[in-house]
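Ticket #4471: structure output looks truncated?

Reporter: J.K.
Steps to reproduce: submitted the chain below (374 residues) through the standard prediction queue, then opened the result file.
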Amino acid sequence: MKKILIFTAIAGIFLSASISIARTKLVALPERADVVIRLDNPNYTLVEEERILTLQKGTNQVDFSWTGVSIDPDSIRVKIISHPEEVKVISVSYPPEENSLVWQIYSPQPYEEKIRISYLLKNIDRLITYKAIANKDETNVILQSFLILRNFSGEDFSMAKILLDYGETFEKSVSHEETKQMLLFTKQNIQIEKKLTFDARKLPWDPEKVTGNVGIPVTYEIKNEKKSGLGDFALWGGKARVFQDDGKGSTIFLGEDNASFTPPGEKCSLYIGDSRDIVVTQRKIKEIKINIRKNADNQIILYDTDEIIKAEIENFKDAPVMLTLIQNIPGEWDMEETSHQYEKEDANTLKFNVNLKPKAKETVTFHYHRRNVR
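Returned output as attached by the reporter:
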């Protein structure tokens, strides 16, 4: 299928006595000499192709046309490669009601001139997917990234160089309506951190009052940094499937998640399922109003609170576990006392990291005051 065409028209002046006769000759050019498909922008696909123009001395007309191909006309550019100091693009025009444009190119003498044409092409895109295989101890993974190229542009590409902003450069032929999968990279021994997170804003506080066992979300956290075996480039978002080595020569499927775009230095969390070996029971054991302020009509307009929350955590596993407790305190507040240290993620979000011994229980208590509650 050939949908993008280029022609040259050579304008010459022939003198016979005092009469000048204009002649225009239209010649189709050879196929592309080289094609590059750039996929490093998630919203646009840039195509760069090189052609050899047979230029005559004087002004040459070059027609670039396309049919059944979605090209952004404003994005089309031409660059002179062989003789950039001598050969010049004089003008560009767009014939009415046509998918085409016309360049006027001046050459001081006949040349076989290499040019590079670039344009944004629609309906050709890519997906990034990942496959991670964790070791039995869940301390590192083998991480593979794949590029899935989908061409519905209406154009065939023969042995095109396919570039993302990382990984290998591929040289593949891609036909219209064809989908291809290519391996971008394989990284061995990528460090991971297994995390269990109880978010009090999302999970029930008392699992006994809920039908069925409440699971604690489990994630693998990968940091895009040199220390972890990555960090050379950003990781594009995409579907990730996570497996684990079962220690018997095969793997088990843990889960599937959508990895987010992860710049160097940032973390990517992959949800792999819920753990029912950890049980969290949380209750508010104290909540009273203090420092009550009233208006002239004896109506309460502001008050503070005195509150205590207790979270009881039980580990039924035979191995130690680190659980992250996410708590939220709305409005203004100050902490009176806590049983464990915490980090403030923002003005209202607290994070407790609790280390649990095998078959052990741990209780987290925090006593706080909310201020100026209406």
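Triage note (M.O.): checked the attachment and the full token line is present. The first strand starts at residue 4 and ends at 16.
Status: closed, working as intended.
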